[in-house]
Amino acid sequence: MVQEIAEFSENVSDDKLEADVEKYLVLAKELGANDAIRISTDMIIVDERVRAKCYSPRCPYYGTNLNCPPHFDWDLEKTIKIISKYKYGIFVMLQVPPEEQTGKDYDNIKHHIPGARKMYEIVAKVQSAAFYDGYPLALGFAGGPSCKRVFCSTVECKGIKGEGCRMALKSNPTMHSAGMDAYSMAKKVGWKIYPIGKTTEPSQIAHGLELGLVLI
User: Is the dihedral of CA 14, 18, 19, 23 positive or negative?
Assistant: First the structure.
């Protein structure tokens, strides 16, 4: 079914906004999310230590794509200021099999991470739905590994060469690249999230999580 396109309006009623947000929660679940909840933007946690984890231990995708530091160069003040312009966030959660996020070979491009790609796609589709409903500034953030790992693991990022992103309508900055503490946010809303590292075995955790956020 073709989506109806709404006229942009300077003033969106509270009733319309509430109804649309509920629609996006349903949409996220229809697209495969295990859960999606509405949060007020004052529930978004921004912490400089999140960005510090890009540097120590140094992430292998640092500097390799437009959506990771240093190319994604928002400072925390900019993140906080941008968040303050929105009322709600569509916070999305997808459970993935433990095997998808564990093991020493996680960074091997042959290690498949379909859940991460699905979360990017859910975020992009919810953001797109909001755009066509009359919210031109809806803004999406993935929560998992960088877009380089998910979409362009075998090729150089065209974006950092000034040639335009290959996956511009699917790739978004991650929550952590903008300094958002997605783990603490997940815990606060009651989602079970486990520490996963190089030595984690699949049998040690119930599931992995992919997280996403769309600001409305």
Answer: positive
21 in any annotated domain = yes
How far apart, in whole angstroms, are the C-alpha atoms of residue 125 and residue 34?
A: 16
Domain count, the chain: 1
| Contact in structure between 29 and 36 (CB atoms under 8 Å) | yes
In the numeric block, which tokens belong to residue 89? 């966030």
C-alpha 87/C-alpha 199 separation (Å) is 40
pTM above 0.85, yes or no: yes
In a domain, 9, yes or no: no
> What separation in angstroms does the CA of 210 have from each of 5, 11, 82, 146?
30, 34, 23, 12
pLDDT in tens, 113-171: 999 999 999 999 999 999 999 999 999 999 889 999 999 999 999 999 999 999 999 99
Q: Which of 78, 83, 71, 86 is nearest to 173 (CA)?
A: 71
